[in-house]
Amino acid sequence: xxxxxxxxxxxxWVDLRQxxxxxxxxxxxxxxxxxxxVAEIYAQRYHFWMHYAERxxx
Length: 58
Prior knowledge:
By secondary structure, the chain is mainly alpha-helical. The chain contains four helices and no strands. The chain has helices spanning about 1-5, 10-20, 25-35, 45-55. Helix 2 (about 10-20) crosses helix 3 (about 25-35) and helix 3 (about 25-35) runs antiparallel to helix 4 (about 45-55).
């Protein structure tokens, strides 16, 4: 998952999106992975996925 977020292309993100929408536990895993990287101001992919997961968990 970390690799998909960091280096994935559009198709990889589509697959990840489908996986997290199908399984709420995957959203929690996305949050865990992203929280480890959001301190880096240039880690925009992690910021995007963290906000995406938070919004869908709310």
